[in-house]
Specification:
This protein has helices at residues 19-27, 31-45, 54-63, 70-79, 85-96, 109-118, 120-125, 132-135, 142-152, 166-174, 185-197; strands at 4-7, 14-15, 82-83, 100-105, 128-131, 159-163, 178-181. With 198 residues, it is α/β, with parallel strands linked by helices. The strands form two sheets. It has a five-stranded parallel sheet with strand order 5-4-1-6-7. It has a two-stranded antiparallel sheet with strand order 2-3. Strand 6 (159-163), helix 10 (166-174) and strand 7 form a beta-alpha-beta unit. It is globular.
């Protein structure tokens, strides 16, 4: 029996055009130059103990000629992300039906602070949000999933998990979690309802 639904955040609750494409359009910085920096810095910034992640970004951005200050960089990045209201409404209904709903996200301090201020409905629509920089567990590390199972006293087979990353899906599946690639809200709703009615 399914008792909990676990969602990724970015690419699921929040949709956006790739940052590399947006930066290229507005600032003329080629995506192939920015992408390796994004991957390198995010791997560090999404872990605990990083008080100012822009200190990591600044020198690397300058090397590719992207001279931008902290406020402009983060505002440009985060403001390009849009909420999926239908998913918010649906998660509230799932909770009303007695299901637990969680978000499991690899993310860093500045971004989550922005989300808490600008998208409070995300946090009020779910039971708990697990951010990697707070928990110390970064997907696809199995510990990220086991942390939720342990804390919420859930068995793997009692959970449905949706993520837009194939790597994260495979990691969860190895633990016995029913993990499914996120395609769209309508497809996800259809899958959940199938599991809940069979």
């Amino acid at each position: 029996m399914i008792k909990a639904i676990i969602f990724d955040l970015n690419g699921v609750f929040l949709q956006a055009e790739y940052l590399t494409k947006r930066v290229e359009k507005k600032y003329g910085i080629p995506g192939e130059k920015l992408l390796p920096i994004l991957k390198e810095v995010m791997a560090i910034a999404r872990k605990p103990g990083i008080e100012d992640s822009f200190a990591l970004w600044r020198p690397k951005l300058k090397k590719i000629g992207f001279n931008i200050d902290r406020e402009e960089f983060f505002n440009f990045w985060f403001s390009g992300e849009k909420l999926v209201p239908k998913l918010i409404d649906y998660t509230k209904k799932l909770k009303e039906r007695g299901l637990k709903v969680f978000i499991l996200s690899n993310n860093f301090k500045e971004r989550t602070k922005y989300y808490r201020k600008n998208f409070p409905e995300i946090f009020s629509s779910v039971d708990k949000v697990y951010f990697s920089w707070e928990t110390g567990f970064v997907k696809p590390d199995p510990k990220a999933y086991l942390n939720i199972l342990r804390e919420q006293r859930l068995r793997p087979e009692e959970c449905l998990y949706f993520d837009d990353s194939e790597e994260n899906i495979k990691s969860a599946q190895k633990l016995g979690i029913r993990a499914i690639k996120y395609i769209s809200f309508l497809e996800t709703k259809k899958i959940i309802e199938t599991y809940l009615t069979t």
